[in-house]
Design brief:
- There is one protein chain.
- By secondary structure, the protein is α+β, with helices and mostly antiparallel strands.
- The chain contains 10 helices and 11 strands.
- An 8-stranded antiparallel beta barrel has the order 3-6-5-11-8-10-9-7. Strands 1-2 form a two-stranded antiparallel ribbon.
- Strand 1 and strand 2 form a beta hairpin.
- Helix 3 (about 60-65) runs antiparallel to helix 6.
- The longest helix has 11 residues, at about 155-165.
- It is globular and about 45 Å long.
- The protein starts with a helix and ends with a strand.
Length: about 230
C-alpha cells in the first residue's frame, strides 16, 4: 500500500511561488531582497539553485546579502525567497531562479562570493544544489513553514509513478501540501521536493513511520533522505 511516500521522499525550502514570486507573502522587489523583480509565472521547467549555510548572526548576514544583489544579478541569479531553519534559526536557505547554469556555478564558486560570505559571518560550508523545477503549485504563495526532502533514486520514472499513485490528498492528510517537484541538474536521479506545512508535529511524526521506510525502498530510494524544515522570512 502506498502511503506517505512524499514526506519520505522529500520536503524542501524552495519558496517557489506561483503567479507572482513572493517572499513571506509580499511581491519581491529590490527593497525586500536586494534583487530586481523576477518575471510573473515562470515557464516550466526552469533551473534553480538552492544555497544553505549557517551564520553567526542572521541580521548581520542579511545586510550583506542585500548589499551583494548587484553581483547576483550580474550572474543571472534571481532571489525567490529567504528562509531560516525551524530547528536551527541561524541555518539560512536561499533559493534562486537562474538564467544560466554555468554562469551561476561560476559565481557560486568564485573567490568574491567566498569573501562576502566570510565577512557576512557564514560559519559552515555552504550546501549548493542545482535543480530543474518540473512541477510548481501555489501552495507556497503564503508565508509559513515548509518542509524539504532530497534523496537519490534508482530510477526517476519508476519513483514518480509511486509518488503520483500515493497522491496529494494522502500527503495533505499528513500536514504536507505539494509545492515543488524538481530533479538534480548534475544528477537527474536526485529528487528534490518542497511542501507547505500545515501541521509540523504531524509531518514529523509521519516521517518516522516504519511503513514509510518500506515504501521508500519499494520506490527505489537510495540511502537516507535529507530533511530540512524552514520558515519564510519577511
Amino acid at each position: 500500500m502506498i502511503t506517505k511516500l512524499t514526506l519520505t521522499l522529500s520536503l524542501a525550502s524552495i519558496l517557489f511561488v506561483c503567479g507572482n514570486f513572493q517572499i513571506a507573502g509580499q511581491k519581491m522587489d529590490s527593497k525586500s531582497t536586494g534583487q530586481a523583480n523576477t518575471p510573473d509565472q515562470p515557464a516550466l521547467p526552469f533551473n534553480a539553485v538552492v544555497i544553505r549555510h549557517n551564520v553567526a548572526d542572521y541580521n548581520k548576514w542579511r545586510s550583506f546579502f542585500v548589499a551583494d544583489s548587484v553581483n547576483r544579478n550580474a550572474a543571472g541569479m534571481h532571489t525567490i525567497g529567504v528562509a531560516r531553519g525551524v530547528e536551527i534559526q541561524n541555518e539560512v536557505e536561499i533559493p534562486f531562479m537562474i538564467d544560466d547554469v554555468q554562469k551561476a556555478k561560476a559565481f557560486a564558486s568564485s573567490p568574491k562570493l567566498k569573501d562576502v560570505m566570510q565577512k557576512a559571518g557564514v560559519i559552515s560550508e555552504p550546501k549548493i544544489t542545482f535543480i530543474k523545477v518540473l512541477r510548481l503549485t501555489d501552495a507556497l504563495r503564503d508565508p509559513g513553514e515548509y518542509a524539504e526532502i532530497s534523496h537519490k533514486v534508482k530510477d526517476y520514472d519508476a519513483w514518480v509513478k509511486v509518488f503520483d499513485a500515493e497522491g496529494a490528498t494522502t500527503r495533505a492528510n499528513d500536514g504536507l501540501i505539494d509545492g515543488v517537484l524538481a530533479r538534480g541538474i548534475d544528477d537527474p536521479n536526485l529528487v528534490y521536493l518542497v511542501f507547505k506545512i500545515t501541521d509540523l508535529a504531524k509531518a514529523k511524526a509521519a516521517l518516522q513511520m516504519p511503513s514509510r521506510q518500506k515504501t521508500m525502498q519499494d520506490a527505489g530510494v537510495i540511502g537516507k533522505p535529507e530533511v530540512y524544515f524552514g520558515k519564510d522570512q519577511q
